[in-house]
Amino acid sequence: MMLKSNVVSTKPYEGQKPGTSGLRKPVKTVKQEHYVENFIQCILDSVIASDTTDNRKLLVGGDGRYYNDTVIPLIVRIAAANGFKEVVIGENGLFSTPACSAYIRSCNCVGGIILTASHNPGGPDADFGIKYNVGAGGPAPDSVTNDVFERTKVISSYSILDPISISIADKGTTQLETDKGQVVVRVVDSVECHQELLSSIFDFASIRSYLADNNICVTADSMAGVMGPTAHRIFGEVLGVDSQHLIRCTPLPDFGGSHPDPNLVYAAELVETMETGRYAFGVAFDGDGDRNMILGNKGFFVSPSDSLAVIAANLSCIPYFTGRTFSGVGRSLPTSGAVDQVAKKLNVPIYETPTGWKYFGSLMDAGMIVLCGEESFGTGSCHIREKDGIWAALAWLSIIAFKQQTVEAIVTAHWEEFGRHYYSRHDYEGLTAEQGARVMQQVNSYTSRPSPDMGLTKVASCVNFSYTDPVTEDTTSNQGVVFTSTTGSRVIFRLSGTGSSGATIRVYLERYTKTDLNKDVQKILEPLVVFAGEVGDILGITGRDTPTVIT
Predict the structure, then answer these.
(1) Cβ distance 202 to 394 under 8 Å?
(2) Within a 13 Å sphere around the CA of 1, how many CA atoms are in the beta-carbon half?
(3) Catalytic residue, candidates 118, 222, 496, 500
(4) At residue 243, what are phi and psi to the nearest 5 degrees?
């Protein structure tokens, strides 16, 4: 039967502006009539305007959250009506964000639409997300997301194919006969491509042997997100970790009622498990599988900034990097300067970017960096153009197996060699947009007037961070207010771009020292906490005397 393309009249919705990583809104907002269709049409219009090829292939997948199963068929129908020749879908609609990047790059897709709100909660009363990744495999750059946003302001119609019935529960290929020509819909194993890539990077046999020969117990918490099947495949089948140690590995639409954010607060179950001393290594992944938290025996916490630095200092332990030039490393502005110390010793460039993985893409494409990371539990390399939670875990297991040391011993030795960057992030979630704006306005005022002392030290500078991409020469402004002391301590205020409503203020605290390497983090940062409260007038503006989350 010939399927017909239909043009449906619509009106713009306000506020369809992608944030740091795609459009994130409450499910109730997304369920409004034509809301999803409008945004998808604007993405595809932007793609078509910049891509003149006739055989466009689009990847579609997501983290398994609520409403994905409704939106995936809509995307297929809209893509078909707009002339796309092939749509690739992950089995059961699942595709981790790093796996999406791997597949897009290896299978010549024009891009991919990823249905994820990352580490945000899922369910009917929670969040939904739509993110576009370009043909290089990475998040759409500002030039693309800005173009999409402008289109959302003026859209008057979208094209959509007649309703179709396609099962995404099993692998297979379906051919649709449409008035725009034949369209192939392919349902694929969403783990296979990513697994093959990782097997070319790491020595799985050596890791498995080390774990078995030394009776090393490993546990992984997928937080009921999309990384569960990958964890079973790689940790279980390949590395020999017993399935009883792989927890919450079944993807659930509401993530089991949990908040799938791998930090000390929301992954408390893993923290408690590690504190028992039963396991030598533990890792948690977020909803879409791109973030990770690393823990050692007895709950030893590796901050994401330290994790990036340790991996940078030990790249030679990973076969993929043997013989490769360490061209440079990237980190986001709020990430601590721990990796800077490594880069300095190795004489490699360091690039400080705004928050958002998309800012690393051009640097990797140009061969300027091979490793990058963010303080928000994201780590990755040039193998794809996304952060990759399981890559980070495998990097750590490679280092552990090569050095035959514990997580704590590796980190402690690193501090002794490079010094320690005491670091913490204080999140004030659930603020009104007005409160968030007032806090940022308050701290921004210090860019043009004297600041109070930062504890026992003076403030050397206060700037509103702006970044010019050395490859594209695009400039991004207003990325956070940075207070730097005369001794190098930093306090950074930033308005988060990953929430679905309201505002979240993130306050980043950092102090570097070559001595006092084993102090309590919050205690040593206390003078910076007091300073942040003063310059931000947080209590006066928000009424909050404590953060919502401390990591």
Answers:
(1) yes
(2) 7
(3) 118
(4) -60, -25
Percent of the chain at pLDDT exceeding 70: 99
Task: Say if residues 148 and 132 touch (Cβ distance below 8 Å).
Answer: yes
Dist CA 274 CA 300 (whole Å): 8
C-alpha distances in angstroms, 521 versus 98, 422, 461?
31, 6, 24
Q: Vertex 175, ends 170 and 180: CA angle to 5°?
A: 140
Give catalytic status of residue 489 as yes or no: no
Closest CA to 289 of 395, 354, 377: 377
The reported pTM is 0.95
Largest Cα span, the chain = 77
Helix, strand, coil share of the chain (percent; to 5): 35, 25, 40
The DSSP letter of residue 2 is: P
Whether the Cβ atoms of residue 22 and residue 129 lie closer than 8 Å to each other: yes
Is 476 in contact with 408 (CB distance < 8 Å)? no
pLDDT tens readout for residues 44-86: 999 999 887 888 999 999 999 999 999 999 999 999 999 999 9
In sequence order, which residues have a C-beta less than 8 Å from that of residue 187 and are 6 or more positions away? Answer: 89, 90, 91, 166, 167, 168, 170, 171, 172, 173
Is-contact 294 399, C-beta < 8 A?
no
* Whether the Cβ atoms of residue 171 and residue 91 lie closer than 8 Å to each other: yes
Cα 118 from Cα 116, distance rounded (Å): 5
Average pLDDT, the chain: 95
Burial 392-401 (b: 16+ CB within 10 A, else e): bbbbbbbbbb
Q: What pLDDT, in 10s, does the model give residues 71-127?
A: 999 999 999 999 999 999 999 999 999 999 999 999 999 999 999 999 999 999 999
